[in-house]
Structure formats: C-alpha cells, structure tokens
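subagent[fold] <- orchestrator: predict structure for attached chain, return tokens only, no commentary.
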Amino acid sequence: MELGGEAPDLGRPPLEQEAIEALRQSVGALLAGYGWYLLLACVAGYLLLQKLAEKTRAQRRDRARAAGAPLEPDVVVRRQEALAAARFRMQEQLNEQAEKFKEKQRQLEEEKRRQKVAVWESMQEGKSYRGNLKRNQQEIESAASASSTVPKPKPNKKPLRGGSYNPLSGEGGGTCAWRPGRRGGPSSSG
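subagent[fold] -> orchestrator:
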C-alpha cells in the first residue's frame, strides 16, 4: 500500500478508475460544501415520513372502528328511551301551559260576560251605565296587566281635528289661513 492515499489497483481499467476517482472527488466536494444541509434535510424527511405514517395508521384505526364495530344494542336502546322520556316531559309541560292559558282566557271571558250582564241590568233599571262602564274597564285593565299573555286594550282618544279636515282644500281654516296680497301697486290715498 502506498501512503499517497490512492487505492490499490484491483484489476480495473484505468478509464474506469478515473471515473470512480472523479465521482469520489465530486461527492466529496458536495459533502464538504453542503454536508450539514443534506444531513438536516435527511433528518427532516425522516421525521415527516414518521408523522405521516402515524396519521395514516390512526385513520385506518378510526375507519375500522366506525365501519367494523357496530353500536351495542343496549346503548342504542338507552339513548332512545332517554330521548323519548325527554320528549314526554316537554310535551307535559306544554300541555300544562296550554291548560293554564285556557283557564285564564275562560276567566276573562266570564268576567266580561258578567260585566255585560251588569250593564244590561242597570240599563233595564234606568240607572246610568257610564260610571259602571268606566269602573269595569279599569277592572279589566288591572286584570289584563296582571296576566302577561293578554294584550292591553288601546284607549280611545279623540282625534285632534275633525275627520273632514283637509289642509289642501282651503276650508275649515282658522285665522292663520294664507291670503293673497292685494292687487295693485303701492297704496295711494287721495
């Protein structure tokens, strides 16, 4: 062996030995210049492949569980029973609310009927029914304010002007109606 660093002749032709030597030098120069970058790229590629392989294994397991493992009948039955019980409770609550509302409506109708009968009787006896009517309306309003489901009746207000008022017609005006100026020029006395 020679100390010059050359490999011993293994019976190869000189052309092939030159090609191998050129390849070795180019690879050596590449590793000398970019060796650390190549090493980091290889490590990053390895870690990326490991991560992708782990994800694909997890997806295969999930698919196998979803497709291959049917739900247990006991679990399904318990869920359906719980759902039916919840629906039944909700329906009962709704029915109770409807009954309360009907009862309130019936009481209000009965009160209105009593008031109408009282007004009719007072009219038959010749008494004034306007005072009774106002008092009864106040009682209705207080009862309506107590129950939140019945809307409040709007009070009857008198309109500000009569129904025949039309500002464009020129009729029905007061002292503030527009009047055209006098014809003619400046006033001259004489």
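orchestrator: received. Logging for downstream: The two ends are 154 Å apart (CA to CA). The CA atoms of residues 55 and 78 lie 34 Å apart.
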